[in-house]
Amino acid sequence: MTLRDGRRVLKPVAQDYRHLVSLLTANGVQRFGGVPCPFSLWVTVYPPDRRKRDLDNLLKVLQDALTDGLRVDDTHIHSVAIRRAEPFPAGRVEVVFTDVSLEWFVQQSAVVSQRMAMYSTEVKGLPNP
Known about the structure:
Blueprint: E1 2-4, E2 7-9, H1 12-32, E3 39-46, H2 55-70, E4 77-84, E5 92-99, H3 100-122
Parallel strand pairs: 3-4
Antiparallel strand pairs: 1-2, 3-5
C-alpha cells in the first residue's frame, strides 16, 4: 500500500488480485443463489512456499475483495476463521460462506452429541454414538 495525496492506494498487483477475487466471488454467488446475511467466513490459505506470512494482512485484502464482489458491506461478516495449510505450488485460498444460523445449529449439534456420548458411557448397554 502506498500513499498518494494523503490517501492509501493499493499497489497494481494488489489491485489486480482484488479485482480478480471480486469477479470470482460475484460469479460464484450468482451461480449458487446468493450469500445469506449475516454470514461467517471459513478461510484456508495454501501459501506458494514456506516463507513466513502474516495471515492478518492477507485476510484484510481478501475480505475487501469478497465484500466488493458480494456488493455488501463488511459489517455483514459475523465471524472469520482462518487457517494456514500446506504449501500449494502457485498458492491458493479457499473460502466457505456459512449462514450464521446454520453455524449455530452445527455448534449446538456438536454439544448435544458430546452430551449423548457422555451419557451413553455412564449408562451400560447404550451404544456410544
